[in-house]
Design brief:
alpha/beta, Barwin-like endoglucanases, 6-stranded mixed barrel, 4 helices
Length: 114
């Protein structure tokens, strides 16, 4: 019996060596967000087919050029423009684009990176 206990102890130590230390896990980068729930606001000065997004949201999501707004199964592709001073959870759109999706001012939508 003592030989079996020793073998079990060795196996447990081998398993513990596989687990990385916490310091190794801390250095890993997070993947950019693929989608986020945001509030959409009507702004007449925004061109049709474009969406104004905060700089921080662009960095967090990795937005390059195009984004998709989705609500209740309806989707609309728009080009993204960044702007300083905009709240992170808010995007601005043209009222005509919002009518296509059947949205009112300050509605919650899903923003996806394309």
């Amino acid at each position: 019996m003592s030989e079996k206990e020793e073998k079990e102890k060795v196996n447990i130590k081998a398993l513990v060596n596989v687990v990385p230390p916490a310091s190794a896990l801390k250095g890993e980068k997070k993947a950019p967000l693929k989608e986020k729930r945001v509030k959409i606001r009507k702004k007449g000065e925004v061109e049709e087919g474009t969406l104004i997004i905060s700089v921080k949201l662009v960095k967090d999501m990795g937005v390059k050029e195009k984004v998709e707004i989705s609500v209740k199964g309806k989707r609309l592709e728009l080009s993204a423009i960044t702007q300083e001073g905009l709240p992170e959870i808010e995007v601005w759109a043209n009222p005509k684009d919002m009518v296509k999706l059947g949205l009112e001012d300050n509605s919650t939508v899903t923003l996806r990176v394309i």
